[in-house]
Amino acid sequence: METKTLSLSKSDLKLLKDHLDKSNMSPYNKEKLRKEIKEATIYADQDLPGDVVCLKSEARIANTKTGKEFTFKIVMPEEANIKVQKVSVFAPISIALFGYRTGDIINWEMPDGIQEFKILEVKKMS
User: Fold this and answer.
1) How far apart are CA 21 and CA 43, in angstroms?
2) Is 7 exposed, middle or buried (0-12, 13-18, 19+ CB in 10 A)?
3) Cβ atoms of residues 99 and 8 within 8 Å
4) Closest Cα partner for 89 from 79, 78, 74?
5) Strand order in the sheet with 86-88
6) Measured at the alpha carbon of residue 99, what is the angle toward residues 50 and 48, in degrees to the nearest 5?
7) Which pLDDT value is given to residue 28?
8) How do residues 101-124 score in pLDDT, each as one tens digit?
């Protein structure tokens, strides 16, 4: 799999770095995220391309093994509500997708092992 560099806004970068310091992520995910942050392309908040998964974006993804699709919005923890597909920015799936773009394939360790997802579509929420 080709290695992609993350595209992050300055505010999303700060959010991720703060989370990394306090997180109880698996060693695999922590190391992966640390490396990705170090190599990321950083944008001013208003210049982040529209197809990048970020805070206040809606992502449609598919599990590459099962083909099962999921659509959810990435929000701050206090706005999270799974019943209306709003997922905390600090949820494992949000952290996994942050900074990736439409068409990217990512691997992330979930509670049931390493999973692979393809990002099908990303939309900015207004």
Assistant:
1) 22
2) buried
3) yes
4) 74
5) 86-88, 69-75, 57-63, 113-124, 105-110
6) 35
7) 85
8) 999 999 888 778 888 999 999 999
Q: Are 74 and 55 a contacting pair, CB within 8 Å?
A: yes
- What the block records as the tokens of 59 is 């992502």
% of the chain beyond a pLDDT of 70: 97
CB 51 within 8 A of CB 122: yes
Diameter over CA atoms, the chain? 36
**Which segments of 34-101 are extended strands (E)?**
41-43, 57-63, 69-75, 86-88
Residue located via tokens 């995910």: 29
**55, amino acid identity:** L
Cβ atoms of 102 and 121 within 8 Å: the answer is yes
pLDDT in tens, 28-64: 888 888 999 999 999 999 999 999 999 999 999 999 9
